[in-house]
Every structure is written in structure tokens, then in C-alpha cells.
Specification:
The complex is a heterodimer of chains A (500) and B (327).
Chain A (H helix, E strand, L loop, with lengths): L3 E12 L2 E12 L3 E6 L5 H8 L7 E6 L2 E2 L5 H6 L2 E4 L11 H5 L8 E2 L2 E2 L1 H14 L16 H13 L5 E5 L7 H16 L3 E5 L3 H7 L2 E6 L2 E7 L5 H9 L20 E10 L3 E9 L3 E6 L5 H9 L6 E6 L4 E2 L3 H6 L2 E4 L3 H5 L6 H6 L3 H4 L8 H14 L16 H13 L5 E5 L7 H16 L3 E5 L3 H7 L2 E6 L2 E7 L6 H8 L1
Chain B lengths: L2 H34 L7 H25 L8 H17 L4 H27 L3 H26 L16 H20 L2 H11 L1 H6 L4 H27 L15 H12 L6 H21 L7 H17 L9
The chains are: A alpha/beta (500), B mainly alpha (327).
């Protein structure tokens, strides 16, 4: 019989008037993967941060391996073999990856005060080899790594403290399918050694596949804890949200369904070694999915299409105006838009208000002839976006950084969709959002499609692409390896055939 | 060979290639400038002169690395170094403490003043540039008060090192430069303090989560930076013989060249680590002034304009392939 790795009793935590955790009781067994499911803002990350010492609970106790456990900071938690990979990226860009892995612990590699960097690199390499993690460069500056590589680095850094309880908060959302497989392999190896994992993910299929036990949190309380085999996805969704999720949130039809007018024509698009010879047409009302394994170059396509990368070859033509698009200004002028993958770093002004985030990209729409902004119009625009896109916040004056991931994404998306658009490029639009917001975003996309907006949806999630796209452009090793049609080719087997 | 090792080698190769490219370009530019000055620029004596002139600015820039990297923008460094060097000179000359007074008092005073300025910002929770400006006025005023008193009692408001100037001789200064480089390189790249400084400057929240003590790191960085600035002041007062009191925040101009070196150094930080970058840029900037003087460009106007242009050009070159907005 499995022993308890950690026992959490009556943990509560409030932030002002907001109850983040209310009387939480939880048991994580030794050698098990325990899933924590819940909507954005249900208190999962707060609970995880209490366990790993990033926050103190107001009340309650914890026992680890039968002994009292109350870490005051992450270092104390590390000392007691508890580590966490946080939801938001937490690394120092200007330091090398190997140093990042042992930051705060570099003293153990120093002699007479001088740190042996080679020893750190060796120890970092050993961690990667020990756990068979996807290889990333360990020298050079960390800021040059991709989001996926940085997530792997964070995992490696957590493992460097030799944890026997590892908390993974939304780690897989940033990973492509093949890296996810590597993560699952690692999780298996980790738990086989009698170590435990507390896993937070919005991907319920993944949760059912990986976790032994699942606890569902709603409004800061544990609603139910059961073996994962005793849950079904729909039941899990229902418990998380507190109501039935109506039907399948993906499309019900199995046919390509878009108009015959071409909006965007992409010919022989290449950018360095990132993408080579991409060709496609985007039709009015079409959702064109772009998928591929990690490092296939799919995210670069989005950046190049929006003009964020200069020096590409080939043409991106707006068929309506006949213009070739080269810069973001060109794209915006022909009623195009782009939603980046890294919402917090590239998409939002985190210290600004919801209203400012909504109005700044749309300033030209409400500015008067001399460029002056009417405060009434500004307020009306942001209030109407907040209402129409169901953004949960105290008011448009709320600082966006304090909102949940799902609501941040609603602001991110809505500020483009309030414009009159011809097409939009979405890079992982549902990354880091819960099932409720996901369903909402898909609903918004279905409406946009119906309104004739062409949508390019770059995604790491195959199910998302299969569920929403009319066609899928598949990339392999930076090249276009196939174009699949919803009617004929949408199956996991066919996808694998062109992807691998 | 494992894939990890191969990747490490690949990254190292890219950096080495950039370094070689940089050195070749630099060499070509130097040769061209030498031709333009009819072979005067690269004469041994002139090279030594350029290096000697760059030592003060380079030491101050090295000090700035340890202070500015943590996110502190201390503008009192100029006033600090002038005050510290004058106190050292007073100890050496007026108080009869000789070299011991000159060396230790200058260096320790600069480190303490730096600590005071930084702790004022941290302790009072005010932006460092504000506390820096405040401390500038205070440091300048202290020296001005003393200078006024000295003018009345001794007949001169400036203390001159008429002896104890051995540290200002060329071989000694070069030795200091080499030692300063080794120390700052090791401290920044091979010690926990150096990594922690980079971490605190990179992201304080992450650094905190990694168990790094933020205040301790900033304060230790300021102390180390202050020591290096103090050595710069020590060598400058030994080389020149005096450092004039300044008022009305004009001491800020004392560190402008060091700031330019630091900025230039940051431009090349993708190729070289900061202490190396600063050393190269320190010599380069002073070499530029030397070259411009030889070319008859007026100092104070034309030369400063060229320095400003050089900073911009180097910034452009270093961010050539960067796609985002440079902050």
C-alpha cells in the first residue's frame, strides 16, 4: 500500500476579500501522480505555492513523510525535497542555462570563493542525462532559448534540488507534442523511484492519462478527490465548473466550411533556417490550423506573417488590397491581427489597466481628427469589450497582471476582435486557460469564422487543431510536410504520417 | 560525444567566431587610424599614454558593473570619487599618513560613500537615481566646505599630492589595470556574488525564489563597486596629482566617459563578458579621443560629438540582429 508523501490539513489562504484556498484537505501518496483540476482562479496555483514555500497559509498544517512541514520559502522547501516548476517563466535571461539551474546554490561548486563553472555545466548535463530530458543548450544566454526550452530548463532546475515531491504547474501547455511525450516518460521514471508529482494542467485528457488520483478545486475548495479511472472527462468538467459543459466545445461538423474568396496568399515563404518554402491560401471564414513537432518552426510562421521578423523571403499578399505585407503596420492596415504565444511577455502590458490594454491597440479607432482621445469614448469602448467578452474583473481600471490567465487571454483576444478584421493569426490561443475559458474562446472563434474572418490557428495541441480547423498545414523540420483537409484527412494516424 | 556536449561546443564556437570577427575589425580600424595619423597612433609611447589615460575611467566602469547590474543607477559616483580621493590626499599630505593613508583611506572612503548612497536608496525606498543625485549634492558640498576653509587657512582650495605619487607611474598603473581586470573578471564571472548580481538585475522575484538575498547582494555589489571606484580615484589622484572640488552637480561629468564605456561595453556583452568588454572599450574610447586630438578635432565639442556617435554606432552594431524594441 502506498504511503502518504504529503498530507495537507485545513489549509486556508485569503488575499484581502478573496478566498483563494478554503479549508483544503489533500493526501498525495508516495510514488503517485496527483492531479489538481479546476478553473482559472479556483486556487490551484495558490495551494501549490503554499506547498513549495512561496506563500504562507493563513491556517492549517502539512505533514511530509509523516513529519511536520511548513516551509517559509522555496529554499526551505527544496531542503525538504519539494520543488516546483511555476506557471510563469522564472529564469534569468542574461545568465547561462547551466547557471540558472543552480542559481542560489552555486556555493556548492566553489572553492575559495571561486565558482567552477565547468563543474556546474557538468552537473547540469548529468541532470539532463539522468532524467532523459530533451536536450537544450547549457551555455550562452538563457534568453536565446525558446519558451519550450526554457520550460525544460525550469524542470531541470527543479530536479537539481533532488525533490521527492515535484509540483508541475501548467508545464505541458508550453510544450509541443513530442516534448510532452518526453515529459510523460520522465514522469513515469520519476514516480517509479517512489517520488511523487502534484500536477496542475488544464488539459483534462492529459490529466486523465497521467494522474493516478485527481482532486477538483472550485472556488478555493476541494470538491472531490477520486482515482482518475473513476472520472470521465465530462464529469470532471462538470465538477470543475459546477454545471454541464454544453456538448462538445469543438466543431460538430466534419466538412471544410468556408467561402471561396481568398484573403491571404502566402508564396514560398522562408525565414533563415526557421521556416522554408511555406505556401498556402487563407480563405474567408476559414480556420487554417498550423501544427508540427517542437522546433518544426510553426511559431515562427506566425511572427513572420505578422511582420515581426524582417529578412524573410517569399511573399505574403493581402488579396483584397493586392498589397504585399512586410511589417505589422502593413498587416494592421489591411485589417489583420496577431495574438502571440507568450501572452505575458509579448502580448499584454501587465502593469497597465484592462482598459488601457483594450484601448491602446484601438486608439486610432476612437481618436479624433487631431489625435485627441475622448475619455468617454475610451471608457465606452473598454466597457463594451469587457461586457461582450465576459472579462471578469472589478472594472476596466483593474491592473491586468492581477487577473487570472483565462481573463488575461480574453482581453488579449477581444482587443483585436473588437476591430473590423479580415484575418487574425492566433498562436496557441488557449494556452494556460481552463476548460470554461477554452470553450468560450472556441465559441468566439466559431462566431468570427461565421462573420467571414480568416483565422490562422497555430497550435501545439493536435486535438485543438482537429477540433477547430477546416484545414491543417503540417510542418516537419521547418518545412511544410502536408496540408490536411477536414473532410478527408482529419485523423490522428494521418496527422502522424505527415508529422513524423 | 553526447548531444549536450555537441550543443555546448556549438554555442562556444559561435561566440569564439564573433570574438575573432570583432578583433579583426578592431585591428583593421586601428591600422586605418594609424595610417591617418601618419603612424603616430600605434607608436608604443602613444599606446602606453592611451592606456594610462584609460585606467581611471576603466576602474570606475568596472565598479559600475557591480552597482548598475543590480538595477541601481547611482549618479553620485563622480562626487564620491572626487571626495574620496581628496580625503585620501589630505590623510597622506596633511595628516602625515603617507601611502597608507592615501591608499586605504581613498579606497575605503569610496566604498563607504557608495554603500551610503545605495543604502539610502534601499533603506528609504526611493529610486536610486534620486538618492544618487541627493548624495551628489551632499558629497560635493562637503568637499566645497572643506575647500573654502582650506583656501582661508592654507591659501589654496585644492590639495595637491606633491609626493606619494608612485602609484601614478606607468608600470605601476598598468599592473593595477591587470590586477583590477583579473579581480573584476573573477568576481563577476566566477563567484556566487557575480551570479547573484546578474540574477537580481535580471529578475528580483526569480532571484528571491532561488534563495538569493536581494538587499545583501545589492549592498555587497555596491561595496565591491565602491572599492573598484576607489582604486580608480586613487590612481587618478596619484597620476594627476590633484582632483578639483566641484559643485552644482558638475561632478556628474567626471563619470560621463565611464558611463559611455559601460554602455559601449554592454553593446559588446554578447561577444565578451562585461569586465572584458569594459577593458576593451575603456582603451578604445580613450584611443578615440587621442586619435581625434591628433586629427585636430576640438576637445569638448567635436570630440564629445564623436564619442556620442560611437556609442550609438556600437549600440546599432550590437543589436543588429535583435528584432524587438531595444530598451
Amino acid at each position: 500500500m502506498m504511503k502518504d508523501k504529503i498530507q495537507i490539513e485545513n489549509i486556508s489562504k485569503t488575499f484581502g476579500n478573496t478566498v483563494a484556498n478554503n479549508n483544503i484537505n489533500l493526501l498525495i501518496k508516495t510514488g503517485s501522480v496527483h492531479g489538481l483540476a479546476g478553473e482559472n482562479g479556483s486556487g490551484k496555483s495558490t495551494l501549490a505555492s503554499i506547498i513549495c514555500g512561496m506563500q504562507k497559509s493563513d491556517t492549517g498544517t502539512m505533514l511530509k513523510d509523516g513529519l511536520p512541514y511548513l516551509p517559509l520559502n522555496p529554499i526551505e522547501a527544496n531542503d525538504k525535497h519539494v520543488a516546483m516548476v511555476v506557471q510563469e517563466l522564472g529564469i534569468i535571461g542574461m545568465l547561462p542555462p547551466a547557471i540558472n539551474m543552480f542559481l542560489g546554490k552555486t556555493d556548492q561548486f566553489s572553492k575559495s570563493g571561486i565558482v567552477n563553472v565547468k563543474m556546474i555545466q557538468k552537473a547540469a548535463k548529468e541532470q539532463f542525462e539522468k532524467w532523459e530530458l530533451p536536450i537544450i543548450p547549457l551555455t550562452g544566454v538563457t534568453e536565446k532559448l525558446s519558451i519550450e526550452q526554457r520550460k525544460i530548463l525550469e524542470l531541470a532546475r527543479a530536479l537539481a534540488s533532488d525533490p521527492d515531491l515535484l509540483i508541475l504547474d501548467e508545464i505541458s501547455q508550453a510544450l509541443s507534442q513530442d516534448t510532452r511525450e518526453a515529459l510523460y516518460k520522465f514522469i513515469k521514471k520519476f514516480t517509479e523511484q517512489g517520488k511523487s508529482i502534484l500536477m496542475i494542467t488544464h488539459d483534462l485528457e492529459e490529466m486523465m492519462k497521467i494522474c493516478d488520483t485527481i482532486s477538483v478545486l472550485r472556488d478555493g475548495e476541494v470538491i472531490e478527490t477520486k482515482s482518475s479511472q473513476q472520472f470521465t472527462i465530462s464529469e470532471l468538467q462538470k465538477i470543475m465548473i459546477g454545471r454541464e459543459v454544453s456538448g462538445n466545445y469543438y466543431r460538430d461538423d466534419h466538412k471544410e466550411d468556408f467561402q471561396q474568396d481568398i484573403i491571404l496568399k502566402v508564396n514560398n515563404l522562408s525565414f533563415g533556417h526557421e521556416i522554408e518554402n511555406i505556401n498556402f491560401d487563407l480563405y474567408k471564414g476559414e480556420i487554417l490550423g498550423i501544427c508540427g513537432l517542437s522546433d518544426a518552426g510553426i511559431h515562427s510562421v506566425g511572427k513572420v506573417l505578422f511582420g515581426l521578423e524582417s529578412g524573410f523571403t517569399g511573399t505574403i499578399t493581402d488579396v483584397v488590397s493586392g498589397k504585399n505585407l512586410k511589417t505589422p503596420q502593413d498587416v494592421l492596415k489591411v485589417k489583420g491581427a496577431y495574438l502571440s504565444k507568450d501572452r505575458d511577455a509579448d502580448g499584454l502590458m501587465l502593469k497597465a489597466s484592462v482598459g488601457q490594454n483594450l484601448t491602446i491597440p484601438n486608439a486610432s479607432l476612437i481618436a479624433g481628427p487631431l489625435g485627441f482621445m475622448n475619455p468617454k469614448k475610451v471608457r465606452e469602448l473598454s466597457e463594451s469589450a469587457r461586457k461582450n467578452f465576459e472579462i471578469k474583473c472589478e472594472g476596466v481600471g483593474s491592473i491586468i497582471g492581477q487577473l487570472s490567465g483565462g481573463n488575461k487571454q480574453k482581453v488579449n483576444l477581444s482587443r483585436w476582435l473588437i476591430r473590423d478584421l479580415n484575418f487574425i493569426i492566433l498562436d496557441c490561443p488557449t494556452r494556460g486557460v481552463d476548460v470554461g475559458v477554452k470553450a468560450y474562446i472556441y465559441g468566439v472563434l466559431k462566431k468570427a469564422k461565421k462573420d467571414g474572418i480568416g483565422i490562422i490557428m497555430i497550435t501545439d495541441e493536435l486535438t485543438e487543431a482537429l477540433g477547430m480547423a477546416d484545414r491543417i498545414l503540417v510542418m516537419r523540420e521547418h518545412k511544410q510536410s502536408g496540408m490536411l483537409s477536414r473532410e478527408k484527412d482529419f485523423s490522428a494516424e494521418k496527422m502522424a504520417e505527415v508529422m513524423l | 560525444m553526447t548531444t549536450t556536449t555537441a550543443k555546448i561546443k556549438a554555442v562556444t564556437n559561435i561566440k569564439t567566431k564573433s570574438q575573432i570577427k570583432f578583433i579583426i575589425i578592431l585591428f583593421a580600424v586601428l591600422v586605418l587610424c594609424d595610417i591617418l595619423t601618419a603612424g603616430k597612433l600605434l607608436r608604443f609611447g602613444n599606446i602606453v599614454y592611451i592606456i594610462a589615460h584609460s585606467i581611471f575611467y576603466t576602474f570606475v566602469s568596472w565598479g559600475m558593473i557591480f552597482i548598475f547590474t543590480t538595477g541601481i543607477t547611482d549618479l553620485s559616483i563622480g562626487a564620491n570619487v572626487i571626495l574620496a580621493a581628496n580625503i585620501g590626499a589630505i590623510c597622506a599630505m596633511d595628516l602625515g599618513m603617507g601611502y597608507v593613508g592615501l591608499i586605504f583611506v581613498t579606497v575605503i572612503a569610496a566604498a563607504c560613500f557608495e554603500l551610503l548612497s545605495v543604502m539610502c536608496s534601499i533603506g528609504l525606498r526611493i529610486p536610486s537615481w534620486i538618492s544618487g543625485l541627493g548624495m551628489t549634492l551632499i558629497f560635493e558640498a562637503i568637499l566645497d566646505i572643506y575647500a573654502a576653509h582650506r583656501a582661508v587657512t592654507v591659501g589654496s582650495n585644492v590639495i595637491t599630492l606633491s609626493k606619494f605619487r608612485a602609484l601614478g607611474n606607468i608600470p605601476v598603473m598598468i599592473l593595477f589595470l591587470v590586477a583590477g581586470f583579473i579581480v573584476s573578471y573573477i568576481l563577476f564571472n566566477r563567484t556566487t556574488l557575480g551570479f547573484n548580481i546578474a540574477a537580481v538585475g535580471g529578475n528580483q522575484e526569480v532571484a528571491k525564489a532561488m534563495g538569493i538575498k536581494i538587499k545583501k547582494t545589492i549592498i555587497t555589489g555596491a561595496f565591491v563597486g565602491g572599492l573598484l571606484i576607489g582604486i580608480g580615484g586613487l590612481l587618478q589622484v596619484s597620476y594627476v596629482g590633484k582632483m578639483y572640488p566641484q559643485s552644482g552637480m558638475s561632478s556628474l561629468s567626471t563619470i560621463f566617459r565611464s558611463l559611455a564605456i559601460l554602455l559601449l561595453g554592454q553593446s559588446f556583452s554578447n561577444i565578451f563578458t562585461m569586465p572584458v568588454s569594459v577593458l576593451i572599450c575603456g582603451i578604445l574610447v580613450n584611443g578615440l579621443f587621442n586619435f581625434l586630438t591628433m586629427m585636430g578635432v576640438p576637445s569638448g565639442t567635436g570630440q564629445e560629438m564623436c564619442l556620442g556617435a560611437l556609442v550609438i554606432v556600437c549600440g546599432i552594431i550590437s543589436h543588429w540582429k535583435y528584432r524587438g524594441v531595444v530598451k
